[in-house]
Amino acid sequence: MAGDVRQRMVEGTVRLLARGGYHGTSFADVIGQTGAPRGSIYHHFPGGKDELVVAALELADAQALTALTNGDATTALGVVDQFIGMWRRLLVGTQFEAGCSVLGVTVSADTEVVLDRAAEVFRDWRGTLAARLEETGFEASEAGGFATLLIAATEGAVVMCRAARSVEPLETVADELRARARGERC
C-alpha cells in the first residue's frame, strides 16, 4: 500500500511537471493530484521536493525509453515518426496543457541535483535514439548528432505547440526531420 502511494505521487509529479515545471509544482499540488495523505510526502521523500522531482524524472526517463525501445521502426524515418508520435499523442491527449516534464524541470529548476538528473535523462534519450538510428542503417558518425537534433527540434516544437494550441509547429518540424532522415539536406 505504501509503495502504491509513493508511485502515485511520482506519477502525479510527472504530470504536474509537464504542465507547470519545477516551480509550478508544489507538494500541495501533488497531494491534490494524487490524493496522497499529507504525511506521506516526507515519509516517502525525506529529502524534500528535489527527491520527489528526481524520482519523477527517473520515471519520465523510463517511460520514454520504453516507448523508444518498444517501437517496431525499421528505418530512420520510422524512428523519427515514432518519436514525433509520442509527443503528438501527449499534446493532443492533454489538449496542449502538457509538454515534456524533463524540459519543464530544466527551464525552471535551479538545484544542481535536479538539473544533473535532467541532463542524464536527455543523455539517455540521445543514446537510445542514436542506437535505434544506427540499427536502421544510419551512419554511426551521424547518429548522435541527428539524435540531438531530433530531441532539440521536437522539444522546441512541443513548446510552440502548447503556445499555439496546435500541432502545426510539430508537423513542420517533423517534415524537416523526415527529410533529413531520408538523407535529404534541409
Q: How would the blueprint of this fold be written?
A:
Elements (H helix, E strand, L loop, with lengths): L1 H19 L6 H8 L5 H5 L4 H21 L6 H18 L7 H6 L5 H24 L4 H25 L3 H14 L5
Helix pairs in contact: 1-2, 1-4, 4-7, 5-8, 5-9, 7-8, 8-9
Describe this protein's structure.
The chain has helices spanning 2-20, 27-34, 40-44, 49-69, 76-93, 101-106, 112-135, 140-164, 168-181. It is 75% helix and 0% strand. It has nine helices and no strands. It is elongated, with a radius of gyration of 17 Å. The mean pLDDT is 94. The chain has a single domain, classed as Tetracycline Repressor, domain 2 (Orthogonal Bundle), CATH 1.10.357. It is mostly helical and 186 residues long. Helix 5 (76-93) runs antiparallel to helix 9 (168-181).
Number of domains: 1
How many distinct helices? Answer: 9
The CATH superfamily is identified as: Tetracycline Repressor, domain 2
Described by strand count, sense and barrel closure, the largest sheet is: none
Overall average residue pLDDT: 94
Tally of strands: 0
Distance between the termini: 53 Å
Instruction: Estimate the helix proportion, in percent.
Output: over 70%
Oligomeric grouping of the chains: single chain
Which CATH class? Mainly Alpha
CATH architecture: Orthogonal Bundle
Structural class: mainly alpha
CATH topology: Tetracycline Repressor, domain 2
Proportion of residues in extended strands: under 5%
The coarse overall form would be elongated
Order of helices and strands: HHHHHHHHH
Radius of gyration: 17 Å
Low-confidence stretches: none
